[in-house]
Each structure stands twice: as C-alpha cells, then as structure tokens.
Design brief:
The chain has 7 helices and 10 strands. It is α/β, with parallel strands linked by helices. The strands form 2 sheets. A 7-stranded parallel beta sheet has the order 1-10-9-6-2-3-5, with helices on one face. The structure holds 2-amino-2-deoxy-6-O-phosphono-alpha-D-glucopyranose. 2-amino-2-deoxy-6-O-phosphono-alpha-D-glucopyranose (GLP) binds next to helix 5.
Length: about 240
C-alpha cells in the first residue's frame, strides 16, 4: 500500500516527515531508523533538531542504519555520508554514536563489509521506519536501474547521471567516487514502514513513473508499490507531470 501525502512545498514536506519520524520514535521502544542522505532529507533533519531543542524528542534509545556510503572515502572525509550525518543530525541530538551505523566505504574487503552490514541490520531486528529519497532515475539508496529486486547490501558502480547529480557536493566531477556500498532493494523492502520524500520539478518525471509506470527493475523505486506500508510525501513541484 502506497499512500500519497501531497504538500505545497519542501518546507511542508520536511515538517510532515518530521512529525512522522517523531511519532515513530516516541511510540516504539528502542526504535530502529533507516536514514538517507542527499539534499531531500536535509530539511527533515533540521526540523528534528528544532524539536529536539524543544524537548519533543530524544535519540537516547534510537539505533540508526544509513542506506549507503561512497567507496574510497574515509569516514571523516568531508564528502562521506558518515560526515554528512554527523553534521546534519547526529552532532545536534543526543544519539549515542555507537548506535549509529553506516557501511564502511573505506573497508579493505568490500564484499565482507557488505555481509557484515547486512548481518548487523538483521541482528538489530527490522528497521521500524526507513527514510528514502529517490534519484532522478528512480534509484533508492544507490540501487541503480537494473539492480535485482532480490539484492542485499552490495557494491555498486554509480551511473554517470548519479555522479553528475551528486557532483555539486564535490570540487569537480572527477572527485565523485565511482562506486558505493548500498543496502539492497530486498534489504530496504524488509523495513516495517517506509517514508519516501520527493520534492521539486527535477523529480516530476520520476514521480510520474512511480505512480503510472510498471513495477520493473528498470525503475528501482517502483518496487515500493509492493510494500505493505509506504508513505510518499510529495510536493507540488514534483507532481507537475503526475496524472
Ligand atoms: N544516494 C543518494 C540517495 O540516497 C538519494 O535519495 C538520492 C537523491 O538525492 P537528492 O535527495 O539529493 O535528490 O540520490 C543520492 O545519490
């Protein structure tokens, strides 16, 4: 079941997502959150920090697993997703860093690292709420088009369009890593609840495919239509092409 919540703009999307995340944290004992990076969830994390400062939420008992990480970047590299998470969220709330998990993109044995990460997620129990963004080509995490729906955490070669889209965070396009580690599509689909955030006209085509296209490995996000509990918060910009 995919439920759509249509909102006016990015701000409203972030606020709505913040309420859902806080409700989940406050409802569940020892909640496990799946977190995402990219521009899309930045507003959500800002709102969460505001609510934390108002005493409305605590991360004391929260465990987190991020979707993905670039290969070849040290954990503290300015462009690593670990660093992103610390700067955008973890440094500003009372989360215990030992409960924070991201794949290690600097691991010597990447295959072993994928298996370790997958096992760690399993041992934590299921992810209660997975936050997702969506790439312009329908990628979720870093699962590019063509990734099997049965995939678990794995190493991916990033598409040229994905590297291009993310090059805005790097000095030059050449500095964007060519590989990443990502939770697989099957890993993501095991989350109890998924919250997909989509904002802006550059995502309009992707939203149209998500709502009207086939469920196909050519468009990874389409599999979410088979998940029992997905909420899509989408703003007007991203809805311009949807029927
Ligand atoms: N790996 C991330 C994804 O997790 C993210 O959801 C997506 C969209 O990014 P943005 O939110 O910046 O549009 O692409 C990135 O490459």
């Amino acid at each position: 079941m995919m439920e759509f919540i249509k909102v006016n703009d990015y701000q409203a999307m972030s606020e709505r997502a913040c309420s859902i995340m806080i409700e989940t944290i406050n409802r569940i004992k020892n909640p496990v959150l799946g977190l995402a990076t990219g521009s899309t969830p930045e507003g959500l994390y800002q709102k969460i920090i505001e609510k934390f400062n108002e005493g409305k939420v605590s991360f004391q008992d929260v465990t987190t697993f991020n979707l993905d990480e670039y290969v070849g970047l040290d954990r503290e590299d300015v462009n690593s997703y670990y660093r992103y998470m610390k700067e955008k969220l973890f440094n500003h709330v009372d989360i215990k860093l030992e409960r924070v998990h991201l794949p290690n993109g600097a691991a010597a044995d990447l295959e072993a690292e994928c298996q370790r990460y997958e096992k760690q997620i399993r041992q934590a129990g299921k992810i209660d709420l997975q936050i997702l963004g969506m790439g312009i080509n329908g990628h979720i995490g870093f699962n590019e088009p063509g990734t099997p729906f049965s995939s678990r955490t794995h190493v991916v070669e990033l598409e040229a369009s994905t590297r291009e889209a993310n090059s805005r965070f790097f000095p030059t396009l050449d500095d964007v890593p060519t590989q990443a580690l990502t939770m697989g599509i099957a890993t993501i689909m095991e989350s109890k609840e998924i919250l997909l955030l989509v904002s802006g006209e550059q995502k309009a085509e992707a939203i149209a495919r998500l709502t009207d296209g086939d469920i196909s490995e050519d468009f990874p996000a389409s599999i979410l239509r088979n998940h029992p509990n997905v909420t899509v918060i989408v703003d007007e910009g991203a809805m311009v092409l949807a029927k």
